[in-house]
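dumping the sequnces here before i forget
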Amino acid sequence: MFVGRVPSRGALLALLSESEICRLISLLAGLSLVCSCGKSGSENPAGGPAATLPATPCEAVTKSGVEMVWLPGGEFLMGTSQGNADEGPVHKVKLSSFMMDKYPVTHEMFTKAQLPNPSHWQDNPKKPVERVRWRDAKQYCNERSLLEGLKPCYNEKTADWECDYPAGGYRLPTEAEWEYACRAGSEGPYDFGPPDKLRQYAWFADNAGQKTHPVGQKKPNLWGLYDMYGNVSQWCEDVYSPTYYRESAAVDPRGPASPGRDVKRVLRGGSWNASAAMCRATFRQGQRTGDTDACFFTDFCGFRCVRRVSAEELQVLKANAK
Amino acid sequence: MKMTLFRLGGLLAALAWLTPPADAADPAPLRARLKASPFKIAYESYADGNWDIFVMNADGSEPVNLTKTPDLNEHYPQVSPDGTRICFVADKGEGREAIRSLYVMDVDGSHRQKIADYAREPFWSPDSKVIGYLDQEYPKFNVIDYYTKGMNFYEMAAGTITPHPNYTNLHHLYNPNFCANGKWIVSTLHAGMGYDHAILLIEAHGNKIINLNIPGCRPRFSPDGRQVAWGASDNEIAVAPIDTDADEPKVGEWRVRIKDATNKIYHVRWSPDGRFLSFSRGPDGEGDVSKAGTFQAACEIMGVYAPGWNIAAVSAGEAGTIDLNQANEADFTMLTTNGLSNKESAWFRPRVK
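..and the predicted 3d for all of it:
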């Protein structure tokens, strides 16, 4: 049984209700807009004061109406020495800011992108899509980018659908981005504190009843992201390597190079059929992408999208959220 | 006298039981038997940087390109049971902008006619008078085979299109085809209609749906409607009896199993006399998007370039297992060998309309 340290801040915040956390996030975000002296904002083309990126997470709503959470860049300790062998060594990673979907991509979001829903459980449009091949997830990212007039990140004419990170469209999170978002500033296996609270935050084998559930029914993590620990596991961009942490880049790591064939990609987070031990911030899985299967039956594979935005655009997207 | 006749009948019956079917006893190589047959086989192939429909003799000889259209990519030939027409789909354009349309032409490639846009997976009625097909789920192109909704019937003589009576409930079907009595359509379904994945019987002119409870995909009725062949897995094709005259048809004990541990085997099709089966065979892969008019997905999916894939044939007469890596030339032969993504074969006895 994995037992990690419980951050006192996490324990304190775990006592707060969801609405209280949201209010706190909004308050901090609002304060940051007033007080932040971050230097990542770009020049304001209108000639007014240049917008700056806030210092704390804030909610945003995209042009096509998808709820996201903007996360400030920062440094964190990735991995753990108390988990499985592939979760170590613990190493320092520095990340740029990014926005992440507040919920895993749902059936209704997938349908809006005019993609065939491959999911096993289709009884509720608010459920997360599953049985999604890695490339299906990337296709969704590109379709959503096109829907919002953004340049897609993925080049569909390359074998691995290579990611053009600066393109500015939607993409899968890197493994480091996913863990950073899940940890939400905490240092233990869960941002909410002791493991016995997992039921409040995740659908997993002990409480899911062998199926997925509509997103957003459990408590969010400290940064307002729902279903990070359970419901569906989530594809990341990175090639899976059990030894990658020994060689990972320190700034915005993007995983090892693709070996070409028989690639496994990283899946993060637990799922409806995962044990509690798998529903941890640092737990890693390598999963075949399913791209050579006409029918992909792995019904715990879902995903969520990320995107980087400028300070000016974030202001607009934040306003949409109000 | 009655007793003598009874004895004679019994003797004949015993002799018939002892005598194996013609194919099982025939020592001639399968290719020779196919050469002697009156049949031809249509199939799709990626030749000269483009998908086209070819027709070859049943032994694989004398392939002829019927389409030769550099701007269109033809797929999925289905020959009418009377052997006069071929319906197929053709993709125009690339990527998400591609449009898949339904066409019909004579078996010699002449009199080509477009029937519908955004149309997929055509199939013939037993009397060769109607083409069934599935609508595309959304206007934007997607290569996935179950990207369909509803079902339509195109009346060849009248030129009219009629939706299936259960149109609104049919969703995510692929590879449908009629049984000989016209009562049922068998089809694969993935992620829809309340099913996870299934091979279904769909009442052709009603709302009844029966789950055949067999694993895999891409079922195909034998020409007499008394057997069904399907892909039981990536590496196995199975054949089993089915009574399509029954109100609740069920699949019987698997009679033939074709196995290939080293290649994928897909798209099984019957010869018009039910004695032979053809199928596509090749290595696992996910396409080659550097090739124009192709998409990236599993090799068996229409529109995905499948390097090394060829059309193969086996005898369907004898019950038992055929291991393709050990089968001899009496039971198994490769009909194409160029590996140019040869898929989706369709047998016919050619007739001029």
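The first helix of chain A runs from residue 8 to 14.
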